[in-house]
Design goal:
FAD/NAD(P)-binding domain; 2 domains; Elongation Factor Tu (Ef-tu), domain 3; six-stranded antiparallel β-sheet
């Protein structure tokens, strides 16, 4: 059987490769690392997490929690590796980022039907092919994709990664372990700020010097990954209603709810490194040290990685792609990952999953099955291919893009659980047909 070429060994490319290989389809997987590295990548391993180490909420009344459960039930490689390398994070699924990517790499490299090719790809390979080169697609490959679509312009936005600090440098006399509303285990370190401390912090943050980022404008910042300095400039209380929200976090030392709270989440299994939750930034490194050290518990913080910002690139997918993430003109040329306009680690994984599964059916000459908008996987595929969209923007999975229930359920959580139950029934039915 002729192999499928997959370009890019990120989350989407690895998932697509795995699903193809598990269905008996040989794969030629191309990855430019370590021969060539993008500005945001540092590890030679596959599926490198360049921003947060969190795959977000894991509860079924949360849309991304439903998406993860669908992928688990369908034997996702990425979810299997994430569950195997998870670190404590309350109600979220966070992973040891190095252990996670190492495990994905080992699983991919050891699969007998996946052949690894190192080096940059600068032209669209012959079909069948899945392009999963990510939001940091190299300049040469980006131009090749643009030309493939007849010069169709990409859309761009900017994405930012939060700083990492050592646990031993945190002043635990001014911080405490807890999860919001005591949900799950106490996995977050909470750093309290009083009103005067918060006001001074916001003032300095809003005025801090930014790093040079070509073409940066606040209007292009994706709302779900907005740098903290941009939030600070949008109003004094913006951060208190965002990543510094104190609600549900009572300080055990005072018995009161602080004015603002900075949360830290474990970034590795050993618990020696923590990241500043929601602190994506593109400030100059000395400014990050100066301003973030104004947080009382982080006055002596040791930064092992400063926050960085990079450009994300995505396609005008509703004009170009179908519900299988494939070129409307050629079903054997597909795309996957954030470049299709899905936003987030789990969403990228889901796009790779469906691009791989549907390609397997196509190369076998079989009809591609359907996952409807009643499922999170199907809803994402329908969103990026919805030709009625006039203002297409990257989208995290949310219950708003899933098919409504059609009947009333009292309470938002109960309604979301009912949607999740319906989705998982369809997933089970799809899994049964695959067997």
């Amino acid at each position: 059987m002729r192999p499928v070429t997959v370009v890019g060994a990120g989350l989407a490319g690895c998932e697509a490769s795995w699903q193809l290989a598990q269905r008996g389809i040989p794969v030629e997987l191309f990855e430019m690392k370590p021969t060539k590295m993008s500005p945001a990548h540092h590890s030679p391993n596959f599926a490198e997490l360049v921003c947060s180490n969190s795959l977000r909420g894991d509860r079924l009344e949360n849309a991304v929690g439903l998406l993860k459960e669908e992928l688990r039930k369908l034997d996702s490689l990425i979810l299997s590796c994430a569950d195997a390398t998870k670190v404590e994070a309350g109600g979220a699924l966070a992973v040891d980022r190095h252990g996670f990517s190492a495990l994905v790499t080992e699983r991919i490299r050891s699969h007998p039907l996946i052949h690894i090719n190192s080096g940059e790809v600068t032209a669209i390979p012959e079909a069948p092919v899945i392009i999963a080169t990510g939001p940091l697609t190299s300049e040469a490959m980006g131009e090749a994709i643009r030309q493939y679509f007849g010069g169709e312009d990409y859309l761009n936005f900017f994405d930012a990664a939060a700083p990492l600090i050592t646990y031993e440098s945190i002043d635990m006399d001014k911080a405490w372990f807890a999860s919001r509303y005591d949900r799950g285990s106490a996995d977050y370190i909470n750093c309290a700020m009083e009103e005067t401390e918060y006001r001074e912090f916001v003032r300095e943050l809003a005025a801090a010097q930014e790093a040079e980022v070509h073409g940066f404008e606040d209007a292009k910042v994706f709302e779900g990954c907005m740098p903290v300095e941009v939030m600070a400039r949008r109003g004094l209380d913006t951060l208190r209603y965002g990543p510094l929200k104190p609600v549900g976090l009572r300080n055990p030392k005072t018995g009161k709810e602080p004015y603002a709270v900075v949360q830290l989440r474990k970034d590795n299994a050993a618990g020696s490194i923590y990241n500043l939750v929601g602190f994506q930034t593109h400030l100059r490194f000395p400014e990050q040290k100066r301003v973030f050290s104004m947080i009382p518990a982080l006055a002596n913080a040791e930064f092992v990685r400063y926050g960085v910002m990079h450009r994300n690139t995505f396609l005008q997918s509703p004009k170009l792609l179908d519900t299988n993430y494939a070129d409307r003109r050629n079903p054997l040329v597909a795309f996957a990952g954030q470049m299709t306009g899905v936003e987030g680690y789990v969403e990228s994984t889901a796009s790779g999953f469906w691009a791989g599964v549907s390609m397997a059916y196509k190369v076998r000459g079989e009809s591609v099955p359907t996952l409807t908008k009643q499922t999170a996987i199907g809803a994402l595929a329908h969103y990026i291919s919805d030709s009625s969209l006039t203002e297409f923007q990257p989208m995290n999975v949310n219950f708003g893009i899933l098919e409504p229930l059609g009947y009333r359920v009292k309470g938002k959580a109960n309604k979301n659980l009912a949607i999740a139950d319906r989705a998982l029934e369809e997933i089970e039915a799809f899994k049964a047909t695959e067997k």
